[in-house]
Amino acid sequence: MEPVQNLENLINAGAYDRALDFVESLSLEERRQWQIQNLTGVVCAYCGEFEAAETFFSAALEQQPEDCNLM
């Protein structure tokens, strides 16, 4: 299963600590993918880390500026 799907599954299960651990286990290249950055922002928002979430959302938007779902 690809990292994006794994991360989505952890988020859907409410396993936010495990989701963050999973992100940290990814390679730097994988963590730079806009989908991973966006989902990491989601996890941060659920955990109340809104400034960190904004950073991840902004990084995802830089890569996909026309994606209306990210906006």
What does this structure look like?
It is a single chain. This protein is mostly helical and 71 residues long. The protein is 72% helix and 0% strand. It contains 5 helices and no strands. It has helices spanning 3-12, 16-25, 28-31, 34-46, 50-63. Helix 1 packs antiparallel against helix 2, helix 1 (3-12) runs parallel beside helix 4 (34-46) and helix 4 (34-46) packs antiparallel against helix 5 (50-63). The radius of gyration is 11 Å and the shape is globular. 21% of the residues are buried. The mean pLDDT is 94.
Based on the model shown, name its key terms.
globular, 5 helices, mainly alpha, 71 residues
* Overall 3D shape: globular
The secondary-structure element order is HHHHH
Distance between the termini: 27 Å
The main β sheet shows up as: none
Quick recap:
This protein is mainly alpha-helical and 71 residues long. Helix content is 72%, strand content 0%. Helix 1 runs antiparallel to helix 2, helix 2 packs antiparallel against helix 4 and helix 4 runs antiparallel to helix 5.
Per-chain topology:
Blueprint lengths: L2 H10 L3 H10 L2 H4 L2 H13 L3 H14 L8
Helix pairs in contact: 1-2, 1-4, 2-4, 4-5
